[in-house]
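Weekly modeling sync, notes
Attendees: S.R. (lead), two postdocs, one rotation student

Agenda item 3: backlog of single-chain predictions. S.R. asked that every request posted to the team notebook include the full sequence so nobody has to chase files. The rotation student volunteered to paste the first one in as an example of the format we agreed on. Action items at the bottom.

Example entry:
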Amino acid sequence: MNKCSHDELMDRCEVECCHPERIARVAAGMPTERESAGLAELFRALGDLTRVRLLNALAQEELCVCDLAALVGLSSSAVSHQLRLLRMARLVRNRKEGKNVYYALDDDHVRRLLAESLGHAREHG
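Predicted structure, as returned to the notebook:
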């Protein structure tokens, strides 16, 4: 018989069982496959340090691509690429003013998501 570490024992049930009433309650509140896929895409977009830094900058105020590039220490081209991914994930929106393109967070949901996530990271970091 294999000996399991204490951590391994803490990660699983020692006896297989099912609680149908709990499963039914939770299943009723679960997002659809499509919603879950959208959520996974959102977290994938948030899974990059540069994109997180850009989002946190935009949580403070609208900035043009040049300002964002200077802020994060990357080329405008590299920042534009990251912003395009964030725009496709509907986390940011852009607007053109003259020859400059300005970015802002798409809505307050994104601002709250960032604030809650940062709070969690600070608490557990």
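Discussion: group reviewed the output briefly. The first helix runs from residue 6 to 10.
Action items: rotation student to repeat for the remaining queue; S.R. to check formatting next week.
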